[in-house]
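User: I'm new to structure prediction. If I give you an amino acid sequence, what do you actually give back? Let's try with this one:
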Amino acid sequence: MTKVNPRISDNLAFDKADSEGCSVCRDLLTHLDKFFDMLNSTRRYKESDWLTVEEIATELKISKSIVYRLIRLGELEAVNIVHADGEVPKKGHYRIRRESLNHYLESKEVKPFPNQITHSSRSRHLPKVKNHLGL
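Assistant: Good question. You get back a string of structure tokens that encode the predicted 3D arrangement of the chain. For your 135 residues, that looks like this:
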């Protein structure tokens, strides 16, 4: 991932004497420097290893019911988060590790058959049909 240079003055060619007299320029450079500092600090945070059912459904562009079915069938490993008293929350109680999702997707990868040769250019033999229109 490329890092944005947070110092605007390093990225722009301008005369510092001009900017020292202009309060708007000074304020702009100060705020832009702060913005780039914030932008770079957010990039340091790694995305979460735990995903919700909704996040997986959005990422794969499928419905949440399909994700729940994959969990129930054991095809997608998930953790069921319950309260201390054993009560299951009504909503949002499954968490799935990203590596489990990646493993599931790798297992569903479509691979070509090694010894099967396809002849898409082979002509098909169609029965002759009498042309009643004279064409």
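You can read the tokens as a compact description of the fold. Here is one thing that stands out. The chain has a mean pLDDT of 77.
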